[in-house]
Design a protein that fits this description.
The chain is of the alpha/beta class. The chain is built from 11 helices and 18 strands.
Length: about 375
């Protein structure tokens, strides 16, 4: 098949392009090479076997030209990360929402009826929790007063009892809690509107915490794995927010790329009619503190420091149910946490492209916790 990969010069997109080519597909890449993602004056760094086009997915003419002869589109192009502050709202809407709308309109005009959308677990907000009295519940945003006091765990929204985190399924209601999350939810809504309106079939892959070689470094929009890794490269201790016990599902980028290939091939074969969302994750959660500790140990760096800081908009626990991806796509991750983190600890990152703070301005819980190594 001939596959168009938007954002194919990016972190996940680049690995996906290579995996598609290795699987025998023809690949065309469309990437605008944003300065804040690639650096000023960047050139496409994509596999030489691919047809690389520098252009903006928000430009209808460019989209029309790149869709000629295409069978399946894998839409990876997006601004990523929680963001720096509310000034990022227009950029997320302009790139992620408008870009997706222009692409979908172009696909409808060109008669291209198969789409893989790079989604994100951020659309869920908090993950799934269970209350001993009320069963499965979904807590709302944590209150700043609780975070200030170091009370990081959400309570039952009905009785306030302590909750047990569980796995979140794809049928969970969407509850975006940041500009980025809202834009990713909007991409899904636009995709469903396109499909219902006769555009075609779509698979929305909700990536969980992707890490691996080629992650961007030195940018406010990087994920926590990159921030920890960048700190260790500078000889500094990774700074772990809250108490380090936040649960996440860290999935290796090569597994994510394999899921992307499986989705392309399932759509191309007509095996997934309609619109389907799938969690793409390892199925084995770890704490943020465990990640920092494992990275530091792998390079013999300074032990992580738990700071007690927090960021408004962060969620406490998000753990994926991966049954649907296994059943519909045959996706089963192959790279375990220990092996993946050991490789990532010394793998090359993308060069720094941004200056200034590396995360949104955090707040500190009071009283400050003891500065100690991160632990589960």
């Amino acid at each position: 098949m001939k596959v168009l990969v938007t954002g194919g010069a990016g972190f996940v997109g680049g690995h996906l392009v290579e995996a598609l080519l290795d699987a025998g597909h023809e690949v065309r890449v469309l990437d605008v090479l944003l300065d804040r993602a690639h650096g000023p004056g960047a050139r496409p760094t994509v596999d030489r076997r691919a047809d690389a086009v520098v252009g903006d997915v928000r430009d209808a003419g460019t989209v029309a030209r790149t869709l000629v002869g295409i069978d399946v589109v894998s839409h990876q192009a997006a601004l990523v990360g929680l963001g720096v502050d509310l000034s990022d709202l227009p950029a997320y809407a302009a790139h992620n929402e408008l870009g997706t709308a222009v692409l979908l309109a172009g696909m409808a005009a060109a008669g291209v009826g198969a789409l893989v959308l790079a989604g994100s677990m951020v659309v869920y907000g908090e993950g799934c929790y269970r209350c001993a009295l009320h069963g499965e519940v979904r807590p709302g945003p944590r209150r700043p007063a609780d975070l200030d006091a170091g009370r990081f765990e959400p309570g039952c929204p009905f009785c306030g009892r302590a909750l047990t985190p569980g796995t979140v399924r794809e049928d969970a209601p969407l509850d975006p809690r940041s500009a980025y999350a809202a834009s990713k939810a909007a991409q899904e809504h636009l995709t469903r509107a396109w499909a219902v309106g006769g555009g075609g079939d779509a698979v929305m892959l909700r990536y969980h915490n992707v890490y691996g070689p080629g992650m961007p470094s030195g940018t406010p929009y990087a994920g926590v794995a990159s921030l920890f890794r960048s700190a260790l490269a500078r000889g500094e201790a990774p700074r772990v927010f809250e108490d380090g016990r936040q649960l996440r599902d860290f999935v290796h980028v090569r597994d994510v790329a394999a899921a992307g290939v499986a989705a392309v091939e399932a759509l191309g074969a007509g095996r997934l009619p309609g619109t389907t969302a799938c969690n793409i994750a390892s199925g084995r959660p770890h704490t943020v503190g465990e990640l920092a500790t494992a990275l530091a140990a792998a390079v013999g760096g300074p032990e992580p420091v738990v700071t007690g800081e927090y960021r408004l908009g962060d969620v406490r626990h998000v753990v994926a149910d991966t049954e649907r991806a296994a059943r519909l796509l045959g996706f089963r991750p192959r790279i375990g946490f220990a092996d993946g983190v050991r490789e990532f600890a010394t793998a090359p990152l993308r060069p720094p492209v941004a200056t200034g703070a590396i995360s949104r301005r955090p707040r500190r819980a009071a009283p400050p916790p003891e500065r100690r190594p991160a632990a589960r």
